[in-house]
Structures are given as structure tokens and as C-alpha cells.
Amino acid sequence: MRVKSTFIIFALLCSALLQAQTATDAFRYSQEQLSGSARYTAMAGAFGALGGDFSAVVDNPAGAAVFINSEIGLSAEFLNDNLEAQYGGTSKKMEHTRFDIQQFGMVFPLNDTREDSDWPRIAFAFNYQRKNDFDKTFNAVGTSNQGIDQYFLYYADGLELYNLSLANDETVSGVYQYLGDQVGYGAQQAFLGYQAYIIDPISNDLNETRYQSNAQYNSVNHDYFFRSNGAHKKYSFTMSGQFRNKLYLGISINSHRILYKQNDDLEEYGYGNNSILDAVRFNNQLNTIGTGVSVQLGGIARFDSGLRLGLSYHSPTWLNLYDETSQFLVSDYYSQNGLISLTTEPNIINSYPEYNLRLPSKMTYSAAYTFGENGLISVDYSTRNYGNASYQEEANSNYFSNINLQIQQQYAASTRLAVGGEYRIGSISLRGGYFNETDRIALTNSGSTGYTLGLGYQWGGNAFGVSLINQENTLTQKLYSEGLTNSIILNNNPLQITFSYNFKL
To answer: Is domain 5-147+220-274+287-327+350-504 given the CATH code 2.40.160.60 in the classification?
Structure first.
């Protein structure tokens, strides 16, 4: 039976390690991409002072009352990703395509035809939209002066050797699961590194808490393959009203759905001639599901001159999330019998307790000018501090406190500027726009810039639109959150084409 007083004391002190969340997870769910209807995306999302579009209502709920007739709309998106990973002095590109439904909405305005009515129109709307797409595939290949041994040394430091050893009646799967249940993620990582002969204790004393690496190198070769998929989906229920033909006010209650799957695989080789280790492969899988809620408030003021001003507030999003992880190690090492290949695979799925994450709020300031029936120009300016994301802290635990501090230090306050315009020629509308979001990660180049084009055609109560987005995204991603924290620079130039069809009821 694996029981020891010092072990129990350590487990009590480190109970927070039963969680495995990171600052990177909080940032991932905080991000948004430019998506929605073809008209909205063709104008770079600069719709906060306009309304009358389903995706515009997602940004500013006051825009639902701009609709005159009941309407239904559907949008589909084709995306071609061209993702370049720069790492260790080399770069490698990978291409990925997909086609998916990304927006569906309906609106039902109630019109009061009385001339003296203070509220000539009340509207109710529903809209589904992908807030963010997690589909991403890249391959980072290069050299590093740090190896995966640093990852396992980080987690082993301070753990008694007794916790990492196998007794005669114990198995890798049994001890791995026991450590996960009683101590947590960090102890499991140390256990894997020890069992795979990547690290060894300084001495064979079962109370030893110091460890050393079995790898000797000046530099090592890394081949890191990363694939993720899933989405952050947002369902908006909106009520909006028009007050005296001059002011639109609205509120939305939003339901959020998170589905995220990740598989990352690191191959490391190229050690020195005297190294016990010859090669390592480390594979990790993560599945996350969750739900959440947020609230939006917005207003649009309309002036006789054609000027419109908009203001909207998106509250923090409160998410409840659930994680599952699995992992395995393959290590090639030299022994007295020559080169041995060892697979350390617990075949255990770690299921972690549910946890709460708060995503940062957002403010959007908007202005637009309409040129009668000929066209319009619109500007949106949004602010969001990604460093304000935070995990709900638990009593008697400083784990989430430390993660929240990392979020504040690693991520930055970001602004987004979007400019869009539309020119109408009869039933045809020509659209275009530009957007720029400043760096989201502190002290790095992590912004996004893009240009948009689009075309719309109306006949009867029907409208068809198509848009094209050409953008440049730069993001920095770490190999691992601890120990081996080398950065990968990801440059993406995706081609995004959206098709929309709307019809009036």
C-alpha cells in the first residue's frame, strides 16, 4: 500500500496541483476572430453604429431594432490556413482548409404604427455565431539549448524518490493514477520522467528530493507537431427597442459553448556522445468542454445629418470548464545491454475537477455616416485587456493565484480598430474594410491586421453576399508552460471567404 506520512503531508501542501490549467488556456478562450455574415465581415466588422445585420447585433444588441421586417439569415465560411512556424532558427509552413456553417440568425420586430408612439419598434432576435475557431495545425522544427529533461526536472524538484518508484506489487498505470488522484499533475510528470530514464535522483535514498538529467548535450533537435480543433460558440438572445426614431437601445443574454481538443507531439534527438539518452518522444492530449454566460448592453444614436454614434459593453464571460488529459513517453537510452527503446504509457485518462474561468470584458466605441441611399462609412474602436482573464481562486490554495499573476504579467491590454464602407449601385452593394488589433501578448509581436472586400445583391426580400478576408496574424506560443518554455513564432496568412443568404418573412 502506497502510504507514508511525509507523502501525506506533501499531498496536503500541494493539493492545488490537482489542477492542470495554464495562462495559455485563459488566453486561448479570450480571443475572437473576425467572423459572421458576409456583409459584416466585408466591412471588417465595423458595424457598431449601424445595426440591421445579424453579426452587428452580436457586437451591439441595439442594432436589432434597426431591422424593419422579420428576417432569417445563414452564413457559411471557407477557410484556407497557411501557417508558418518559426523555431530554433528554421521555419516550416503547413496548409489547412475547412468549410463550415458559422452563423445563423433570426429577428422579429414588432412595429407600432401610431405616430405619437415613443417606442415605434421593439425587436427580438436570436443569433448563433462562432466566436473563435480552434482549428490549427503546425510543425515546428529546429534546434535548442534546452531539452525535455528540463520539463521533468522542474516537476521532480522537491518530490521524494519514494513517490516516483515502483514497488514489487505496483504498475505504471496504478501509480500514475494514484499520483494524479492524491498529488496531481506535477507529480505525474515527474513520475513519467523518472520511469522513462530521462531523470535520475542524486542518490538512491527513498527520501531524496534532488534530481539530475540523463541527457548530455550542448544543443538538441526538436520536431514538434501540434494539432487542435474545436470552437468557441456564442448563442445570443436579444431584445432591442427604438426610442422616438432617434435612439436604439438593446440587451443580449449570451450562452457560450466551448469544445477544444489538442494533440501535441515532441520528438527530441541529437544528444552528445556520452549521453545515456539517445532520443525521446513525448505525446500529450487535452480535451476541454465547457459552458458559460455573458451579458451585452448597447445603444445607437441617430442624427438627421446621417451621423450615427454607437456604444456597447460586453461583460466578462463566466465559463465553467472540464478537462481530460492523457499522455505517453517513448525513450531510447543506453544500458549494459545496448540501446533500449522503452514506452511509458499509463493508458490513463486524467479527469480534473470542474473549474471557473472569467474572460475579460470589452468596450466598443462606434461612429458611422450614411450618404442617403448611396452608401456609408463606419468606424469601430474596441478595447480589451487580455491580462484581466482570471481563474476562480479556491480556498486554501495558491495555485490559481499564481496562474492569475502569470496572466497579468504575460498578456496585455489590446485595442482593435476597424474601418468599413459600402457603396450601392442599384441592387448591388460594393463593400470593403480594414482592421488592426494591437499586440495581445506582452512584449511580443502578437497582433493582427487585415483587409476585407465584399459584394452584395438584393432582389425582392432576398439578399446574397460574399466577402473575402486577407489578414496577417502573428502569435507566440510556448512548447510547454514550465521547464521547456521555448517560444514558437506563428505567422498565419489565412484566406477566408464567407457566403450569406438572408430572406425576409
So the answer is: yes
